[in-house]
Write a structure and sequence with these properties.
The protein contains 7 helices and 7 strands; from the N terminus they run E-H-E-H-H-E-H-E-E-E-H-H-E-H. It is of the alpha/beta class. It has a single domain, classed as 3-Layer(aba) Sandwich (Rossmann fold).
Length: 205
């Protein structure tokens, strides 16, 4: 089985990248036949801007842009999609949001046919690993994590039919040792290709 891990952080030495590497270790652990591909959106200089070309492709007036086609092919090769990102302004970074806006396009992720939406990514399990800079009390008091799940888990992935198996918020301020969160990321990776009835469904840290 093959996983695509998408990381959205501009610094290769960031905690977000460290989390992504530990997820990968969990997926491709010793004696595992699973493989991993990284999409480092910042290092690859993916352009998140939704342009007139993207609008034309959405309306099926012109072919999809080449970079969008390449990202869709990456996902098509994958048996699971893992997104690892820091929380910016109580959501995902603009770089990752733009990747989703451009790549999860009409005709590929879904079909909007006369007002009836056909979900086209029902085969794809998704694992979300977000790194939080505010403490759990802040998230709970304002309902931020619930709002993020509504916006991202339901609003994006359920719209396309992709099943969110893991939706984890790794809260840095509450961790006495960041290795605990890194170990958690590796456990998430170990569960990405868990057998039937063993899905790694997680809750807020």
């Amino acid at each position: 089985m093959h996983a695509l891990i998408v990381v959205a952080h501009p610094k290769p030495g960031s905690f977000t990248h460290a989390l992504g590497r530990r997820v990968a270790q969990g997926i491709a652990e010793p004696n595992s036949l699973h493989t991993v591909e990284f999409a480092d959106l910042a290092a690859e200089q993916f352009d998140p801007r939704f342009t007139a070309g993207d609008v034309g492709a959405h309306l099926r007036q012109i072919p999809k842009p080449d970079d969008v086609a390449a990202e869709q092919a990456r996902i098509d090769r994958a048996d699971a999609l893992v997104l690892v990102y820091p929380v910016y302004w109580w959501s995902m970074p603009a770089l990752l949001k733009g990747w989703i806006e451009r790549v999860f396009a009409n005709g590929w992720a879904y079909d909007d046919a006369g007002g009836k939406v056909i979900k086209k990514l029902q085969r794809l399990p998704v694992h979300l690993v977000a790194s939080a800079g505010a403490d759990q009390r802040t998230y709970a008091r304002h309902g931020y994590f619930g709002a993020m799940k509504t916006q991202i888990d339901h609003g994006i992935f359920d719209y396309c039919g992709a099943r969110v198996v893991t939706s984890e918020l790794l809260i840095q301020p509450d961790a006495t040792d960041l290795n605990v969160l890194l170990d958690m990321a590796q456990r998430i990776g170990s569960g990405v290709f868990a057998g039937p009835g063993q899905d790694s469904v997680t809750k807020a840290a």
